Amino acid sequence: MRYFLLEWKRLSKILVFLLLIAALLVSISLVVFQQLSDLTKNDRNATFTISVVGNTDSRLFSAGIAALKTMDPSRYSIDLQLTDEETAEAQLRRGQISAYVVIPKGFSQAADRGELLPIAYYSTTSTIDISALVREEMTKVIEAVVQQSQKGVFGGERLVWENGYKNLAVAKANQLNLKYINFIIGRTGMYKTKITGVSYGMDLMQHLFIGVSIMLLCVLAIPLLCLLVRRDNSLVRLLSANGIGPARSALCEYLAMLLVFLSALFLVAAACYGANKLYGLAELLDVGIDLAAYARALIPVSIMICAFAFAASELSGNLLSAVTGYFFFSMGLCYISGCMYPLYALPKPLQDAAAFTPTGAARAFVALSVTGADALVPALTLCLYVILFLGVAVLARKIKLSKGGA
Amino acid sequence: MQIAISDISKKYGRKTVLSGASFTAQSSECVGILGVNGSGKSTLLSVLAGVLKPDGGTFLCDGTDLFRAPSVRSKTVGFVPQGTPLIEELSAKDNLSLWYDRESMQRELDGGTLSLLGIDEFLNVRVSRMSGGMKKRLSIGCAIAKKPQLLLLDEPMSALDLVCKQNIKDYLNAYKKDGGILILVTHDVLELELCDRCYLLKDGKLCPFTYSGDTEQLVKELL
Questions:
Q1: What is the pLDDT of residues A235-274, one digit of tens each?
Q2: Which of B40, B85, B87 shows the shortest C-beta gap to A10?
Q3: Are A74 and A44 in contact (CB under 8 A)?
Q4: Which of A77, A396, B83, B213 could be cross-linked to A314 through a Cys-Cys bond (beta carbons 3.0 to 4.6 Å apart)?
Q5: Residue A4, Cβ density class (10 Å: 0-12 exposed, 13-18 middle, ≥19 buried)
Q6: Pair A272, A26: CB distance under 8 Å
């Protein structure tokens, strides 16, 4: 306990420095994300290409699409194209289209009967503006279909009337109309939005926000790592001679490091919370994630990153190799685990493998935690990495001690 | 008090570092161990301090095998390893607090061994700002917190100026006079003046050696 307290006191001496670095990193990130947010807003005003796939063979439906493409004012903001689902999905992944809608089988026939079959809407973004625009357009298509049907209903009524079945014609036409009115009133239930996102149901901004956060946490551990690298093992030897073995001394140092790291994060979070209250930071950023859940999810990630940095300090022979080795290795991990870019460009096996790297598991854990999904697998992966890194650190310390000499 | 170290052996993989190292010492005695670099001097001290496990041998202290009684060993044996076994970013006082409780530290600073070592003069100085002599005195101060009867020192006066060396020599002589046993690993012939008996560590074995002041002869013996 005494050793833990002394290590905490020692590492706390750089808390101010750590906070300065954290403030710098957070400020840079805020500026970058604010710029990205503005770019996204600009994108929302651009033309969107949307593919329509599925049961689009109906004459009325094709006519409706054609009308939208040629006559409707929305043609300046939305480009509709008919294609198959496989092509549309590939185009969406490559960013060639903004979204695609799947018209279910028997949609037109069901619409003629006054029944609703939901249209599936696929997008990589949860941005409300795009969704709203597309939903509106889809509704217009349906209205076009319904209008055609209405003409049919009244045409039929006139035909029946002219042929002497006056009472029957009115009753049946009213019946049909009622069905269509109900159908039109209830048209808001005609779509359901499915957001595939770029990863874990998150859009690009959210993906980058989480990925960059993990990268910054890796960088933030470097000052503590510098203090943990030992010039010689004399103190560890003396502790060992006095009954504080390598495992205990390593654990004391790790826990002290973690405490200082979390203290720094807590202070940064408190400062961000204050800034948010004063200046509406969250609105400025417009990332659209639950920031409280995000902050909570960073705690297990910090535990893993500290264990990683601690293992690096124990494995390295000197300060330079510790810092450069840790920096390049952690950044490499961030890169292959998709912290800097969406992973969908990679083959599926690589995408799956990336989720099991330390930073990949961290990214998955934060993403699933903020979306409220089940984060058990990445949480267990993080736990395994903490045990692994601490085990490696203790083993390295034991090996150093067992080599004798100074 | 009497200690008897017999047949200590230690291997690093296939390399034998200690093979049947034996010697005895009693109260108020200083035993010097000399050897070339890599001969196993620090390994021997690490084994005696309990940092390394021996492959064989016994370490008897008044009939108790300290290899089998780690709790007794940690009270009986003080260890000053080579290098700086201190937390560089903290003050002397903080470093001492790792080994002393508040009362005993104050007692030792008020005319006890810590004041004898002159640590009270730089109690609030950060270790990273201390001279080599201050660091060494503080290391000894940390090692003797449990008032051990046997003190193991690994090159205690290397890279120190003459004044510092004399300070430490004075303290070690006082420790001897109080009935303590010193085991000293050294390269420095000046440190041999402290020793009542010397051993050369060669090929893993300890051979008795009397230093007559002839350095050339010592070099021949070492080789």
A1: 888 888 888 888 999 999 999 999 999 999 898 888 888 8
A2: B87
A3: no
A4: A396
A5: middle
A6: yes
DSSP state of A118: P
Check if the beta carbon of residue A312 is closer than 8 Å to that of residue A326. Answer: yes
Segment (H or E) for B183: strand B181-186
In terms of Cα–Cα distance, which of A219, A231, A150, A221 is closest to A184?
A150
Residues of A within 8 A of B50 (CB-CB) are 240-241
- Does the model's ipTM exceed the 0.90 cut? no
Nearest-Cα residue of chain A relative to residue B18: A404
| Distance linking the first and last C-alpha atoms of chain A | 26
CA distance B175 to chain A (A): 20
pLDDT confidence bin for A72, thresholds 50/70/90: low
Q: What is the rounded CA–CA span in Å between residue A72 and residue A79?
A: 11
Residues of A in contact with B43 (CB under 8 A): 404-405
Distance CA A209, CA A280 (A): 18
- Going by their DSSP bridges, the two strands A191-195 and A119-123 should be labelled as parallel
What CATH code would you report for A46-195?
3.40.190
User: B199-218: per-residue pLDDT in tens?
Assistant: 888 888 888 887 777 777 77
- Of B40, B85, B90, nearest to A238 by CB-CB distance is B85
CA distance readout (Å), A63 to A54, A60, B38:
16, 5, 91
Which residue's structure tokens are 């930071």? Answer: A281
Domain ranges, ordered by start, for chain A: 2-40+203-402, 46-195
- pLDDT surpasses 60 at B120: yes
Choose among B17, B51, B86: nearest Cβ to A237.
Answer: B51
Model pTM?
A: 0.72
Ranges of each domain in chain B: 2-84+148-222
Least confident segment among A53-62, A91-100, A134-143, B212-221: A134-143
Q: Residue B189 pLDDT more than 50?
A: yes
Instruction: Dig out the tokens for B90 from the structure.
Output: 């903290």
A12, two tokens: 């706390």
Which CATH architecture best describes the domain B2-84+148-222?
Answer: 3-Layer(aba) Sandwich (3.40)
AA identity, residue B214:
D
